[in-house]
Amino acid sequence: MINLAKRLSLPVSLPPGQTCCGLTALQAGHSAAALTAARLQLRLFSGYDVLITTSSACRRMFREHLPRLLRGQPEAEEAARLATACTSWAKFLVEHAGIERVCCRFEGRLAYFPTCHGDDEDAILQLLTKVEGAELVAEPLRQCCGYGNNLSWRHPQLAHAMTTPILSDLRLSHADLVVTGDEGCCIHLAPLLERVGAAPIVHIAEFLADYCGEVNGGPR
Question: Which of 46, 34, 44 is nearest to 70 (CA)?
Answer without folding.
Answer: 34
